[in-house]
Amino acid sequence: MKINVLFSPANVDELYFAGKTTVVIDVLRATSTIITALQNGAREIIPVATVEFAVKVSGGMFGGLTLLGGERNTKKIEGFALGNSPFEYTSEIVSGKSIIFYTTNGTKAIVKAKFSETILICSFLNVSAVAKKLIELNNDVEILCSGRSNVFSLEDVICSGKLVSEISKQNKNIELMDSALASIALNEKLGNNIYKMMKESEHGKILVENGFEKDIKYCSQIDVTSAVPINQGNVLKLMPETDEKSSDKPEL
Ligand code: MLT
After folding, report:
1. Is 128 within the bounds of a domain?
2. I want to staple 187 with a disulfide (CB 3.0 to 4.6 A). Which of 56, 153, 170, 191 is the partner?
3. Cα-to-centroid distance, 144 and ligand 1 (Å)
4. Mean pLDDT by 10 residues, the chain (252 residues)
5. What total number of domains does the chain contain?
6. Atom of ligand 1 nearest to the CA of 70
7. Which domain holds residue 193?
């Protein structure tokens, strides 16, 4: 199994992912929110790359049980039901719903990876469960860090380092590209206090300024769920063995 980490979506195009197994990470906050929404019973997440497309698909499709969610500059978008805080995606609100989801970086990265055969969604909340699934699949892996505005984000790369370390612990038969070795080194250096690291990161500072400090705390929890979102066509659902009835819900 060969593992490569892409520090930002900028240097590859959509076709790069054709047929691959790709893990998308946007710890603050898109992938943490997707995991939480599905864990809390959302039927599916439909990631989209533009607000206009989100609005277009929200009318009439998916049996009328849709919610529009996401953010622009970390804030809820006018006319959307939900923002991008995982605390908004409670079971009361999302259970049984299809959520059309737009975020500035995270959903754009997922859409960019759309030609992958398999897309898994990862954050600190489910990192060991994703590692376990990748070991089972035993394919070469691309880990796509969403970053911010096409540049490196510390928290995404540290999460990728944790993921690669988990896989290496259990599977000795892997080949790590330089990017994977670098992400392990960063995790060893800065991954001991995830909350502090994220609060001091560029994106963390913006979230604190905008009143979302508790989201950073929430997203810093490690392995609170075994929920692994996976692509089915153009939508994301929980993998069958970790459906919404499982008892290991992340604390909201
Ligand atoms: C993104 O996709 O850029 C984010 O998840 C931003 C955020 O809401 O924190």
Report:
1. yes
2. 191
3. 15
4. 97 96 98 98 97 84 79 95 98 96 97 98 98 97 96 97 96 94 98 97 97 98 97 94 51 48
5. 1
6. 8
7. 2-230
H helices of the chain, in order, are 30-39, 51-58, 91-94, 106-112, 127-137, 154-170, 178-190, 194-199, 202-209, 213-219
Q: What atom in ligand 1 is closest to the CA of residue 31?
A: 5
Residue 137 is assigned to a structural domain of this protein: yes
Expressed in angstroms and rounded, the spacing between residue 62 Cα and the centre of ligand 1 is 25
| Count of C-beta atoms within a 10 Å radius of residue 153 | 25
Which of ligand 1's atoms lies nearest the C-alpha of 148?
3
Strands 229-232 and 235-238: antiparallel
Burial of 193 (0-12, 13-18, 19+ CB in 10 A): exposed
CATH of the domain at 225: 3.90.1560.10
In this structure, which amino acid lies at residue 150? N
Q: Model-level pTM greater than 0.85? A: yes
Pocket of ligand 1 (CB under 6 A): 26, 28-30, 71, 74, 84, 103-106, 207
Look up residue 172 and give its two tokens. Answer: 């000795």
Q: Looking at the domain assignment, is residue 43 inside a domain?
A: yes
d(CA 81, CA 78): 9
Residue 200 inside a domain? The answer is yes
Query: Residue 156: phi, psi to the nearest 5?
Result: -70, -40
pLDDT (0 to 100) of residue 245: 45
161 C-alpha to ligand 1 centroid (Å) = 20
